[in-house]
TrEMBL record:
Record-linked NCBIfam families: sigma70-ECF (TIGR02937)
UniProt name for this protein: RNA polymerase sigma factor (Sigma-70 family)
Keywords from the UniProt entry: DNA-binding, Sigma factor, Transcription, Transcription regulation
InterPro entries, per the entry: RNA_pol_sigma-70-like, RNA_pol_sigma-70_dom, RNA_pol_sigma70_r2, RNA_pol_sigma_r2, RNA_pol_sigma_r3/r4-like, WH-like_DNA-bd_sf
Top-level taxonomy: Bacteria, Bacillati, Actinomycetota, Actinomycetes, Pseudonocardiales
Biological process terms in GO annotation: DNA-templated transcription initiation
Listed Pfam families: Sigma70_r2
Molecular function, one GO term: sigma factor activity
Protein species of origin: Amycolatopsis cihanbeyliensis
Length: 190
């Protein structure tokens, strides 16, 4: 399921009360909503509150969705607004004389909703290509993406290979991914 492609049917079914369709919508957008919340440096509990609040907002508006291709942007914008509201609420909880600017809360500009949507779509394309790889290659990619703290020896142990084989396996994996992405007309992953 990809936003904008089969989403129209999912939206219509969810608006008609189909719980399976609503669950599929929730699964599709969970990464986006949590990424938006985390980009605002919210903790895990607040991030999930933003996720849930966004879905509560969507539930009442789902029958009004006219262009399902824009749903992901609407979700990202709504999540961003809820995240900012959560941050404003936190500001009220701070002791007198404490300013978030002083602790570096605003040092890094937050990515826009559009940038988050584009990044998530890029990630979706990459993982779709990765799904075509052999199991060990997929596991290596997952470990590199989600466990960057692992050493070469730890990667080798998790993959069940010799430590000296991790580098060549990574090269073969990346070469195959690059070839598939080029064949689909996607460049810039050099």
């Amino acid at each position: 399921m990809v936003f904008g492609m089969e989403l129209g049917e999912l939206c219509a079914r969810a608006a008609a009360g189909d719980q399976t369709a609503m669950a599929a919508l929730a699964r599709e957008a969970a990464a986006l909503l949590l990424a938006v919340a985390r980009a605002h440096r919210l903790d895990e509990a607040d991030s999930w509150d933003v996720h849930q609040g966004t879905w509560v907002s969507l539930a009442g508006r789902l029958p009004l969705v006219r262009d399902p291709r824009r749903l992901s942007a609407w979700l990202a914008t709504t999540a961003r607004r809820l995240a900012l509201r959560t941050l404003r609420g936190r500001r009220r909880e701070l002791p007198r004389g404490y300013w978030p600017e002083e602790c570096g809360l605003f040092e890094h500009p937050h990515p826009s909703a559009e940038a988050l949507v584009l990044r998530l779509e890029r990630d979706r394309v990459l993982w779709r290509a990765a799904a075509r790889l052999p199991r060990r290659h997929r596991l290596l990619l997952w470990l590199l993406a989600y466990r960057p703290d692992l050493t070469q020896a730890q990667l080798a142990t998790r993959l069940g290979i010799a430590p000296g084989s991790v580098g060549p396996l990574r090269k073969r994996c990346f070469d195959q991914m690059r070839a598939w992405l080029r064949a689909e007309g996607i460049h810039g992953f050099e």
